[in-house]
Write a structure and sequence with these properties.
The chain is mainly alpha-helical and 457 residues long. Helices cover 74% and strands 6% of the residues. The chain is built from 17 helices and six strands. A two-stranded antiparallel sheet has the order 1-2. A two-stranded antiparallel ribbon has the order 3-6. A two-stranded antiparallel sheet has the order 4-5. A hairpin with a 2-residue loop joins strand 4 and strand 5. Helix 6 crosses helix 8.
Length: 457
């Protein structure tokens, strides 16, 4: 009986998808936009020696360059026009989001609705340009000073190269920002997230090939490779469960009498996600901890303080000190971001203004304390989940040389973006079904009206 019902639902979804021309247009637009993005990751920056860049990235694979090269889909290692990817926009979005909770003027702007949202988006774009200029200039200057086996990474250093490199990298970032916004408005899913998703997924086949090559050459036993693949599937299933897990707080609205009719009395719920901070804590923690490793790698031991050299060694991936600080910073950023994005006092006040209340909890300060207590517990569970998922791949990487792309951060991004995109596709299908039902109802009503008119005649 259950299988028959599932088969019927699947057939309905397939038939709805076949008729949903608007959804198919959105999916094709998204695919074409991602193809354009992937083509751009192979257009090199003028004046950069790609061979030297590949050697340099191989030397600093364990540093912050390796992590950002993963997010850019290899564009940074090839030093292409999309080398900065969409990272400046993400940094600007996070900064604006933090400022909108810290500055009263920006907080009031956030409450203005659509007009305030447009202003904040414009500020985010301006800040993206500034961050991209700063990062592009730093990369251009760094490229001129990079050498590998006596060969320079830049063919002809100078002012012209600095200007052309900065303009190219900033232009690539701004184009990706525009492309992401177009995907969000005219495609399916969040455009910025899909661009990062495409960059990570593009490198997964290479990572799988590297894993199977380690098994073929005997560096890893075939049994371990099979166990690892099963473990990876189990970790993905666990991530899916935790990303969809939520605490539903029951909200009750009292009945109100208007004239001779009673309104209200409905009961709903407020969903609170277990992982409120998402993937931001692991990204921030990795970026901060990999800075000493990257600096020590660039200096190559020359003119470098002894304490920085020791710190860089102890904070290498797989080292106990790195594991300890990584877990601590994930916990810190999880609590920090949850506190910034969710305000219990404001939520309780909005609920009181709407006439809603939590059964058994008095409106006002008691409701705010209740929300704060629930958020603290959920954040603790979510932070521990992030620590486990992010540290397990680090152990495998350090002990068994498993490819870096199987890191917990990349898996969380892939799962989160996939869930969000599938949810939006289902929403479009449901909206299409409702539109079809409304059209049928109107056509039936019009036919009934015509036949009734004929009968009256």
């Amino acid at each position: 009986m259950a299988s028959a019902a599932e088969q019927l639902a699947a057939n309905l979804n397939m038939s709805s998808f076949a008729k949903a021309t608007e959804l198919k247009k959105r999916i094709w637009f998204t695919l074409l936009a991602l193809i354009v993005y992937r083509l751009g990751t192979y257009i090199p920056v003028p004046g950069v020696d790609a061979t030297v860049m590949g050697q340099l990235l191989a030397q600093h694979q364990g540093g912050i360059l390796g992590m950002f090269d993963m997010f850019t889909g290899g564009a940074l290692g090839r030093m292409t026009v999309f080398a900065l990817n969409i990272m400046p926009y993400i940094s600007a979005s996070i900064i604006i989001q933090l400022l909108s909770t810290a500055l009263p003027s920006m907080e009031a702007m956030k409450k203005e609705g659509e007009a305030g949202r447009k202003k904040l988006n414009q500020y985010t774009r301006y800040l993206t340009v500034f961050i991209a200029l700063f990062q592009a200039y730093g990369i251009a200057v760094g490229l001129e000073n990079m050498t590998s086996h006596g060969a320079s990474a830049v063919v002809m250093p100078g002012v012209f190269f600095l200007a052309s490199c900065v303009v190219t990298l900033v232009g690539g970032t701004m184009f990706l920002m525009w492309l992401g916004e177009q995907i969000t408005s005219r495609g399916v899913g969040n455009g910025i997230s899909l661009i990062i998703f495409a960059g990570i997924v593009a490198n997964l086949p290479h990572a799988l090939a590297s894993l199977f090559e380690l098994g073929r050459t005997g560096a890893l036993s075939p049994i371990f490779v099979m166990i690892f693949l099963v473990m990876a599937i189990a970790v993905i299933a666990f991530i899916v469960f935790m990303e969809q897990a939520q605490r539903r707080v029951v909200i009750q609205y009292p009945k109100r009498q208007i004239g001779n009719r009673m309104f209200g009395g409905d009961s709903t719920h407020m969903p609170l996600k277990v992982n409120t901070a998402g993937v931001i804590p692991p990204i921030f923690a990795s970026s901060v901890l990999l800075i000493p490793v990257t600096i020590s790698g660039f200096m190559n031991g020359h003119n470098m303080p002894g304490w920085l050299s020791v710190l860089g060694q102890q904070l290498g991936q797989g080292q106990p000190l790195y594991m300890l600080f990584y877990a601590a910073m994930i916990l810190f950023f999880s609590y920090f971001y949850a506190a910034v994005t969710f305000n219990p006092e404001e939520t309780a006040e909005n609920l009181r203004k709407q006439g809603g209340f939590i059964p058994g909890i008095r409106p006002g300060a008691s409701t705010a304390s209740y929300f704060d207590r629930i958020l603290s517990r959920l954040t603790t569970i979510g932070a521990l989940y992030l620590v486990v998922v992010c540290l397990l791949p680090q152990i495998l990487i350090s002990k068994y040389n498993v490819p870096f792309y199987f890191g917990g951060t990349s898996l969380i991004i892939i799962v989160s973006v996939t869930i969000d995109t599938v949810t939006q596709v289902q929403s479009h299908l449901v909206a299409h079904q409702y539109q079809g039902l409304i059209r049928k109802q109107r056509s039936r009503g019009s036919r009934n009206g015509i036949s009734g008119g004929n009968k009256r005649r």
